[in-house]
Design goal:
The protein is of the alpha+beta class and 206 residues long. It contains five helices and eleven strands. The strands form three sheets. Strands 2-9-4-7-11 form a five-stranded antiparallel β-sheet, with helices on one face. About 3% of the residues have low confidence.
Length: 206
């Protein structure tokens, strides 16, 4: 796949989440084609399998993460039924940014990534139901951005590059994430959150 068939993320930007959670995979569905024309997909695996993303075919193992760009077909071949963490999300287009590879080995970061997925899925579920939906939605987006930030560091290490570190935008969003978790249930205006993060309301709303 060329660069246009990759997931590209500008550090600090908040993804818009379609869904996030842990989903079952049925070995009877082996070879089925999955394709989302409007959203990227990220999967964190709890099983071994063979996978094809676009024209690339490779083996995955527990703890691996893959990126399926919007509109690019994916297929799986599993030895037995299992499950994986998954999110379908949208990113705003832009120049530059982190170009994610098809697959990343998470290694020692696996548990922290699972924890981020679990918390993001919880807050996204709250946002889809009752409760403080605006705050929960913001938290779920911040957590998925945290996942992407950690994976960008792992990807750069895997390519033999020294990680560039977190940008001002990402550091601001990380501060905001911590603040919201400490003040769950409180009402917050967009202006107040932007002030806390040191960002403009327009940037925060992206």
């Amino acid at each position: 796949m060329n660069k246009t068939d990759k997931v590209v993320w500008i550090a600090g930007d908040l993804p818009e989440i379609n869904n996030i959670g842990i989903y079952p995979m049925d070995a009877r569905d082996n070879g089925c084609i999955y394709r989302d024309p409007g959203a990227h997909a990220i999967h964190l695996y709890l099983y071994s399998a063979r996978i094809r993303i676009g024209s690339s075919e490779f083996e995955i193992r527990p703890g691996d993460i893959t990126f399926s760009p919007a509109g690019v077909p994916s297929q799986y071949w599993l030895a037995h039924d299992s499950q994986h963490w998954c999110s379908h999300f949208r990113l705003k287009p832009g120049r530059g940014g982190m170009v994610f590879p098809d697959r990343i080995e998470t290694g020692g970061a696996f548990e922290s990534l699972v924890n981020c997925f679990r918390k993001a899925a919880f807050h996204h579920g709250v946002a889809s139901g009752e409760g403080d939906s605006a705050q929960s939605l913001m938290l779920s987006r911040l957590l998925l951005a945290q996942i992407l930030a950690e994976l960008s560091i792992l990807a750069e290490k895997g390519c033999g590059r020294e990680p560039a570190g977190r940008t001002r935008g990402w550091q601001a969003l990380e501060r905001l994430h911590c603040y919201l978790e400490e003040h769950l249930g409180e009402r917050h205006t967009a202006g107040k959150l932007a002030e806390l993060a040191g960002l403009s309301q327009n940037y925060l709303a992206r």
